[in-house]
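Hey, can you fold this one?
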Amino acid sequence: MNARQPLKYDQGFSLIEMAVVLMVTAAMTVAVVPSVIQHAQYDVVDNHVDTVLTMHHALKTYYDVQLNDVNAQDNANLFPSSCDALAEAGVIAQLPVNTWGGSFECSMEEIIGTQSDTIHQVAKLTVTDVPGEMAEYLTAQLPLTSCVGSTCTSTILPPNAQVVA
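Sure. Predicted structure:
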């Protein structure tokens, strides 16, 4: 009764099977990871666009509040000269954080209208440290925005503006 028992193999990968699995995993990583990273970058830009739009709305709200003030005729600055004024006026709770670590800068600019005695005010929102590869996408998403290097500036028209010359 010395019958030999058949050999049992342990469950698992052989060396060849493991090499095939590693090659397939490597090929999928090369194809999928860059796409995931690029998608994540655009998600960051979309969040940044939302933040800039929040600032746009805050600047327009500030303008409306200043315009509706009983002393509006005495108020020459319907847009604030700094972003801090938005928080101080209670238009936004606090200044948002720039996605890329740069700053938000608000300023006011006067533009002479078609008649030389007409002056229009526009706000300028400048955002710094925008990655170069995202600047084109940002300008496509935000009207009246231009980028030079890593600095993008948006022009915000008054809420009641129809045409600014």
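The two ends are 106 Å apart (CA to CA). Let me know if you want another pass with a different chain boundary.
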